[in-house]
Design brief:
Layout: E1 25-28, E2 31-34, H1 45-55, H2 60-66, H3 69-76, E3 79-82, H4 89-101, H5 109-128, H6 131-154, H7 158-166, H8 168-171, H9 175-187, H10 210-221, H11 225-238, H12 243-265, H13 279-286, H14 295-301, H15 307-312, H16 321-334
Antiparallel strand pairs: 1-2, 2-3
Length: 345
């Protein structure tokens, strides 16, 4: 099924027809579904199904973590193979935890509005001020806009999803490019060969080029005309400022954000073969949290200091993660799980 809202099913790359005779069957809770007929309509294409069928027969928690109610309806409309299977212990545990935090999934529209207004104001100040004001301001806008867009893209509220695409004006990144890349990261976290977000060897000075690299990738891999429009508007606005000022601000923002992101996964457990752990354990051993939990750190890190909680329940808006974390950790402890908290680097 799709990690994207189904109203936005524009393929990131051309789909290929599945080989004749090949089938894709998955278990969701107590039912086994044959999803073969849906492969060519899935935004991730056959490559996603090929990756998933190699890893998990029962994809219940993986599906629930990223998908909307509409996606669930599509799944349940597929051909049923078995309907009386025993639901896994991991699925039952996930349900118990989710019940305690379900009220935190919906966006706070006041908070969302304040972030968008603040970022728009920051961009205006950044492109109209002298260098000593413009550089730190545009760097902050780039950092925070990236986190806000990340959070919006994960949420399954239809209106917030549409706004996430428009946020391309602020951060200059393609929503379509990001979804394909990032949702694979959530599905196959720390799986070598399938999670393209990890297992890179970078020198520290290369961290600064994070946003410039992402903006380049957004341009060369995006096929969505709406994405291209917003990215174009982003550059029109940013280039109202001197190019060297804009470039330095992006390098500063990239240097900061790369430290946050690389620390979340690179030194944690990696899977070189099949992911042989249940979903909850998989995410706990593959993620690292940080001890920086104050409100300012949450804004500057976009909730990534709660990386484990984010991977378990990515649809929770980042500004709700401090509250969700307390509940999630308490529930995890009931099942003998403990979140890993360590230094950024």
């Amino acid at each position: 099924m799709s990690p994207h809202p189904e109203s936005e099913q524009i393929p990131t790359k051309p789909h290929s027809l599945q080989p004749q005779g090949k089938s894709y069957k998955f278990i969701y809770k107590s039912v086994e579904y044959d999803c073969t007929d849906y492969v060519d309509r899935h935004p991730g294409g056959q490559s996603f199904f090929d990756k998933m069928v190699e890893e998990k027969k029962d994809f219940t928690e993986y599906f629930r973590a990223l998908h909307s109610k509409k996606a669930l309806k599509i799944l349940k409309s597929q051909k049923k193979i078995q309907t009386n299977l025993k639901e896994s212990q991991g699925s039952l545990q996930y349900t118990m935890i989710k019940k305690q935090i379900k009220h935190l999934f919906e966006p706070d529209w006041i908070m969302e509005s304040l972030f968008i207004f603040g970022l728009c104001l920051g961009m205006f100040v950044g492109v109209t001020s002298r260098w000593y004001v413009a550089i730190p301001t545009l760097a902050l806008v780039q950092i925070i806009a990236g986190w806000v867009g990340h959070s919006m893209n994960h949420n399954r509220n239809p209106l917030l999803y549409k706004l996430s695409t428009a946020c391309g004006i602020l951060h200059g990144l393609s929503t379509q490019w990001w979804q394909f890349k990032h949702n694979n990261h959530h599905m196959f976290t720390n799986r070598i060969g399938k999670d393209d977000d990890i297992n890179h060897t970078y020198y520290r000075w290369q961290y600064a080029f994070l946003y410039l690299k992402w903006k380049y990738d957004s341009i060369i891999t995006g096929y969505n005309k709406i994405d291209i429009l917003f990215i174009t508007l982003h550059w029109i606005i940013m280039l109202q400022q001197k190019l060297w000022i804009t470039s330095i601000s992006m390098l500063i923002g990239g240097f900061f954000s790369a430290h946050v992101l690389i620390g979340n996964h690179e030194r944690e457990f990696k899977f070189f073969k099949q992911i042989d752990k249940p979903f909850i354990e998989h995410q706990i051993i593959a993620c690292r949290n940080y001890a920086w939990t104050d409100w300012l750190s949450n804004v500057l890190m976009g909730g990534m200091q709660f990386q484990t909680e984010h991977h378990l329940f990515p649809q929770i808006p980042f500004y709700r993660l401090p509250y969700a974390s307390v509940i999630i950790r308490k529930e995890l402890a009931k099942f003998g799980f403990k979140v890993n908290v360590d230094s950024i680097l």
